[in-house]
């Protein structure tokens, strides 16, 4: 007797979207989340608790490539990492799905095209109530439907930045966002970027998809249910999962959506006699090709002009997304960060208090993001059961070029002082790639429908399947792929 028709491991963007997409089918769906609900507290809008004290960081250590332990910036709550995300829900660009030459190498392309993904992007934008404006961005791909809602308003300092960038020949556009602004600000006047969502102000995995799924009686969520291995049976099919408490749960279809690092680790930890190198790993690609965007914070200042913004994160610039390198190579995406405070600055830099306070009051805070390229030696492994993350950063010269160009653009636009600082390795800047999608079972982990080549009833629907990282936030693409995979499950009458 099965415990569900579909077991979903993880309630983040991929898992929650899968649950919402299957809910109306009537299938008995069980979502297993290793964490608990993120509840309102005195910490959730306290920048000191979040950025200085690491209140929400897990009590967990991974090993880096040299074997040194570190505390990762991943979160384990209902809704996954999306509870803390910047709520940017942007499509990968059309060119991202084809091989693209970068300063650091050439991307492999995807087994599916943008045109195949486009209808699912529309569905994902509807599910997550995306606020945006089409037509301003020169890299924007074709779309068959407009955004469900118009863009969030610029605050005065951002409206001025938009005007100044346009006046010197650039094309700033509105960030597509999943934020109910009035609801977010009703709890406290803070940014949402990296702040936890406890009042439903962000359209994260919980508020955008999971809550809708759980309105159906056939969908159940179990919290504090950590999966320690997947189980296989006859025909090498997945039979179910084993929890850390020893309980075994059975289902004819299993969806793995624990995140790029944890999904790879779970597949490796599930090795058995029939699969000695781990599940879904006939290709020896599980855990390989780990990618994490190259990112820097760039602060633009006008000494006699204060920036009194609360949230700030409404503008992006893609003029260097597809070009800008010495030979025309892509450099990356530029978008606003959530407004920093002196507390945030002091937590991440050596600036003394008075200086940090002055900078925070006057700065426009910008996020420069460049593509990290897949490398089989950049990987997740297990060492005596502990996760080892050996990230081999790539394409760094492109990122340096992006930051240099952005500094010049900002000075030209009237911001004479520009500071930049790269994010460190502890920051999970859109981790992806450890169970890559492809047509060839010898060189990839899942097919174009996110189904394992090795196990016909196993799907993976988190960022681990992304063949490339592109240079934009991956949340919407994860959601679109999950909707597409759910459609495939239903079309093939699986787990019915």
Automatic annotation (TrEMBL):
Its cofactor is FAD. Gene3D superfamilies: FAD/NAD(P)-binding domain. Keywords: FAD, Flavoprotein, Oxidoreductase. Residues 393-481 form the Glucose-methanol-choline oxidoreductase C-terminal domain. Residues 198-294 form the Glucose-methanol-choline oxidoreductase N-terminal domain. SUPFAM superfamilies: FAD/NAD(P)-binding domain. One of its GO terms (molecular function) is oxidoreductase activity, acting on CH-OH group of donors. Transmembrane segments: none annotated. InterPro entries: FAD/NAD-bd_sf, GMC_OxRdtase_N, GMC_OxRtase_C, P2Ox-like. It comes from the Bacteria. Belongs to the GMC oxidoreductase family. This is GMC family oxidoreductase. It comes from Thioclava indica. The lineage of its organism: Bacteria, Pseudomonadati, Pseudomonadota, Alphaproteobacteria, Rhodobacterales.
